[in-house]
Amino acid sequence: MKKLMLFGLLAITLSFTFKSKKFSKQTSYVFVPSGSMEIDTNNITCNAFYMSSTEVTNAQYREFINELKAEGDLEKLKIAVPDTTLWLKAFEHNYFEAFSNHYFWHPAYDNYPVVNVSKEAANLYCIWLTKKMRQQFPEQNFNDFRLPTKYEWIYAAKGGLELSPYPWGGTSTMNSKGCYMANYAQVGDQNIVRDDSGKVQVVSGKEWLHNGFGEYQILAPSTSYQPNGYGLYNMSGNCAEMLAKSDEVMGGSWISTGGDIRVTSSDPYEGADPTIGFRPVVTYVKID
User: Fold this and answer.
1) Beta-carbon contacts of residue 78 (< 8 Å; ≥ 6 apart)
2) In sequence order, what are the residues at sequence separation of 6 or more whose Cβ sits closer than 8 angstroms to the Cβ of residue 35?
3) 166 secondary structure, DSSP code
4) What are the boundaries of each domain within the chain?
5) At CA 239, angle to CA 237 and CA 244, rounded to 5?
6) How many other β-carbons are positioned within 10 Å of the β-carbon of residue 195?
7) Which whole-number Å values give the CA distances from 210 to 84, 91, 95, 206, in the listed order?
8) Proportion of the chain in helix, strand, coil states, percent, rounded to 5
9) Nearest alpha-carbon partner for 272 in 153, 114, 154, 58
10) Contact at 8 Å (CB) between 262 and 98?
């Protein structure tokens, strides 16, 4: 018997609805309806929730940083400020010096995903976001904003397409016109080399630097490419995304190959990294 796994919204005795048009229209959050799906050979039942339509952007995250500065909360600031030196530490190539200096702070990258933040920092952001949303929508009843569980993330990434390995449907990373559907590292002739013994190898990941990256060379803006069926952008590629209680990140990143940006693709989470971002979710309740 397949294991039935339930997660999401806690049971409550009050009647409720997920139909707050004001919240969904005035924010970048989209509604993910409840449903069931087979994931990892388990039949998963997922309760409804809202999810950020994009990965948290530099501009959104800077608002959080600026409020911590205004409050003089040096302890939280130390945790929350992105470690921009990781651009150079991770890749050890002077190509990334400009990103180390400008990617997070320069307005040209406002709409790009924030990276190089730890899970502890992402959780602090979610706490801050909960407070901000309750101030903005005082008549609504929110649960806490948080990182998604693994099964919530996969369920949302599929966008209602249970059998598709990618958010857009089908098994190809390109559409019928030959256009790429996500930001990932495309393997070309320049990535195929021979080792000292003459054996053919494919140079991949951080080893091929910008020579083998995709259309954007690094990360793409947060609303690049087409959203999935729920209105979620970049659930495959761009930056891998953190989970609530797992040492994994999901969906692959801008240095992942096409086979590693499936909605079930995961990589180990080992701390802040130029390839890792996050997007919050919330189980939102409006009391009738």
Assistant:
1) none
2) 45, 46, 155, 160
3) S
4) 54-276
5) 115
6) 8
7) 18, 10, 8, 9
8) 30, 20, 50
9) 114
10) no
Token couple for 204: 């991949």
Tokens at residue 114, please? Answer: 């924030």
* pLDDT, tens digit (0-9, with 9 covering 90-100), for 108-150: 999 999 999 999 999 999 999 999 999 988 888 889 999 999 9
What one-character DSSP code corresponds to residue 11? P
Q: Which residue has the tokens 């609504």?
A: 140
* Residue-level length of the chain: 288
Question: SS3 for 269?
Answer: coil
Both tokens of 151, joined, read 């099964």
Indicate the pLDDT class of residue 182, thresholds 50, 70 and 90: very high
Query: Which CATH superfamily, name and number, covers 54-276?
Result: paralog of FGE (formylglycine-generating enzyme) (3.90.1580.10)
Name the token pair of 282. Answer: 């919330």
The tokens describing 209, both together, are 């630097």
CB 271 within 8 A of CB 165: no
- The per-residue pLDDT for range 184-236, each reduced to its tens digit, is 987 655 556 667 777 766 665 555 554 455 666 789 999 999 999 999 999 99
For 47, the token pair is: 């309760």
What is residue 84's DSSP assignment? T
